[in-house]
């Protein structure tokens, strides 16, 4: 019941009921990435096939790896599931956008809450009374 309500009322948590129904009717599964995101292709629109992704968990565009991003935006017709691409030794592993998490970049002066106050680099704004 909880899953039904989440799909009915939220768009950011996986897929909605409308997306589930559309995928069931028109979608053909193309592949899945290591994050668990599932990619689909359906009817054509403006002479291009519709492509979409069902995220595993929170909908975050940074969760799509580079190869799948290129396929989603019609940069290539060959999906990474069909391709035999091997990354170069210097290429880094895809990472989610860490903004808003504990892994986000913070300048040295802001890494701790007290560092900013101790260094007197930050002064709170107060309106003129």
Structural account:
The chain has a domain at about 1-85. Helices cover about 25% and strands about 15% of the residues. It has 4 helices and 3 strands, in the order H-H-E-E-E-H-H. The longest helix is centred in the first third of the chain and has 10 residues, at about 15-25.
The Cα radius of gyration reads 21 Å
Helix content: 10-25%
* Strand order of the biggest β-sheet: 1-2-3
Biggest sheet architecture: 3 strands, antiparallel
Shape: extended
Class by alpha and beta content: alpha+beta
Number of strands: 3
Give the ordered list of helices and strands. HHEEEHH
What fraction of residues sit in β-strands? 15-25%
- Could you give the distance between the termini? 54 Å
Q: What's the number of helices? A: 4
Instruction: Give average pLDDT, whole number.
Output: 80
Residue ranges: pLDDT <50 for 5 or more in a row? none
